[in-house]
Amino acid sequence: MIIMRPFVTVNCAMTADGKIASVLRKQMRISSAEDLARVKELRKNSDAILVGIGTVLSDDPHLTVKGLSYEENPLRIVLDGRGRLPETARVLDDLAETLIVTCENCSKTWAGAEVLRTGRDKVNLTDLMEKLYDRGIRTLMVEGGGEVISSFFENGLVDKYCVFVGSMIIGGRTAPTPADGNGFEQPVNLKLVDYKILGNGLLLTYEPVNDL
Ligand SMILES: NC(=O)c1ccc[n+]([C@@H]2O[C@H](COP(=O)([O-])OP(=O)(O)OC[C@H]3O[C@@H](n4cnc5c(N)ncnc54)[C@H](OP(=O)(O)O)[C@@H]3O)[C@@H](O)[C@H]2O)c1
Question: What average pLDDT score do residues 60-72 get?
C-alpha cells in the first residue's frame, strides 16, 4: 500500500572508522565548517527535524537554526516511546515548535510541547509519517541517532541518505554507528548519487534502491 508521507532525508556525520559519537556516546565535532554550513541549509529547508530520545539524552540539542524565528524554525520532533524526555531538555525551549512522539501506553505530557501517541513498544514510524503528511510536513530531516536511522531504513522510509565522513578515527567497540539497531538480514542497497569534498572530509549522498 502506498502511503502519502514526507520526503525523508537522513543526515549524519561519521568518522573515517564509521563512528558517529564517542565510546561514551558523547557528541564529537566530526563535521568540517563547510559541512556544518550545509547542514544548516538542510535544516532551514526542512519542514521538520527528527531525532530519537537517545540523541536528546546524550547531546541535549536545540534542533533549531540560528537566526530563524519561532515561526520560521522547522518543527522539532523527538521519538520518545517511554516518556524519558526531561522537562529541562533544550528541545522544549521556546525557540521553535516541538512534537514529542510517544507510544500509546505512555500518558506523559510536557509543558509547551504537543504529544502524539502511536505504536505499542516503539513509535509506529509509518503511521507517524502519514500523520506528519496530513499536517503539512513535506520534507523531514532525520538527524539520528543510530537506532532511529536504522528504524527508518528498516521501514523503507528513507529517500536520501547523506553521510559526511570526517577525517579522524575514534575507535571503540561500543561507539555508535549510523545504523545500529539489530542489523538487517538483507542489506539495504544504496546508489551513490553524489560525492563532494567539504573541507577536510567527504560528503556522500545515496538513494536506497531495490535493484542495483
Ligand atoms: N554524528 C551524528 O551525525 C550524530 C547525530 C545524532 C546523534 N548522534 C549520536 O547518536 C547517539 C544516540 O543514538 P542512539 O542510537 O543511542 O539513540 P537515538 O537513535 O537517538 O534514539 C533511540 C531511541 O529512540 C526511541 N524510539 C522510539 N521509537 C523508535 C523507533 N521507531 N525506532 C527507533 N527508536 C525509537 C527508543 O527509545 P525508547 O524505547 O525509550 O522509546 C530508542 O532507544 C549519541 O551518541 C549521539 O551523540 C550522532
Answer: 97
Rounded Cα distance, 36 and 49, in Å? 15
Distance 44 CA to ligand 1 centre (A): 22
Q: If residue 153 lies in a helix (H) or strand (E), which one and from where to where?
A: helix 146-154
Return the CATH number of 7-208, one of 3.40.50.450, 1.10.3720.10, 3.40.50.300, 3.40.430.10.
Answer: 3.40.430.10
Cα 73 to chain centroid, rounded: 16
- Domains of the chain, by residue range, sit at 7-208
What are the tens digits of pLDDT across the range 151-207? Answer: 999 999 999 999 999 999 999 999 999 999 999 999 999 999 999 999 999 999 999
C-alpha cell at 127: 503511521
CA-nearest residue for atom 9, ligand 1, is 145
Ligand 1 atom having least distance to the Cα of 146 = 15
Task: With cut-offs at 50, 70 and 90, classify the pLDDT of residue 212.
Answer: low
Distant-in-sequence, close-in-space partners of 2: CB < 8 Å, separation ≥ 6 = none
Residue 52: asked if its preceding bond is cis (omega within 30°), the reply is: no
Instruction: Provide the sign of the torsion angle of the four alpha carbons 86, 123, 121, 58, taken in this order.
Output: negative
Full DSSP string of 188-212: --EEEEEEEE-SSEEEEEEEE-S--
